[in-house]
Write a structure and sequence with these properties.
By secondary structure, the chain is largely without helices or strands. The chain has a domain of 53 residues. It has one helix and three strands. A hairpin with a 2-residue loop joins strand 2 and strand 3. The protein is elongated. It starts with 18 loop residues before the first helix and ends with a strand.
Length: 169
């Protein structure tokens, strides 16, 4: 049981409302007063039939200015065709007949049966003009082709793994 002589529990201190709560009540009241003032100001206009009509309130004819611009199109010359000269180079391989002193047949046949000599003439050269050697990459246009390296050994452009390379044939 509670004692009649005990003081009542203390009340929590009154603190002011936080800023968001003030904004919650104050801003709508200010907005309402603003619109109320606009409504009161607009209510002062009377739409009586006795109001004075000014000369500006009646429609009048107005002057209209029309400007016309004329543009003429000038023809631009059509570009002419592009002329490209294609130069075709022809490589001539000369085979030298080897002299065979032990052969007395005199038929003029030589031991070299290919069109390339053993002196290192290459029929397919790189873009720089050099002979290819085994292990170098092949151009796309040389896939499957056969030529000789600088020493006269026959090499072929073949697929090696995933790349085309010159290999001894």
């Amino acid at each position: 049981m509670t004692s009649p002589y005990m003081p009542p529990p203390p009340t929590p201190p009154v603190r002011p409302a936080p800023k968001w709560a003030r904004k919650r009540y104050v801003l709508p009241v200010i907005g309402f007063a603003f619109f109320l003032g606009i409504g009161a100001g607009a209510g002062g206009q009377h739409s009586d039939g006795n109001s004075v009509k000014t000369a500006a309130s009646q429609p009048r004819p107005t002057a209209t200015v029309t400007a016309t611009a004329t543009a003429t199109a000038t023809a631009k010359p059509v570009p002419g065709p592009t002329v490209t000269k294609t130069v075709k180079a022809t490589v001539t391989v000369t085979a030298q007949a080897s002299t065979d002193n032990s052969s007395g047949s005199g038929d003029g046949s030589s031991g070299d049966t290919g069109s390339q000599s053993a002196s290192g003439t290459c029929s397919i050269v790189s873009n720089a003009g050099n002979c290819y050697s085994a292990g170098e990459f092949c151009r796309n246009s040389d896939h499957g082709a056969t030529t000789t390296d600088a020493s006269g050994t026959s090499i072929t452009c073949a697929l090696s793994g995933s790349r085309w390379r010159w290999t001894y044939s």
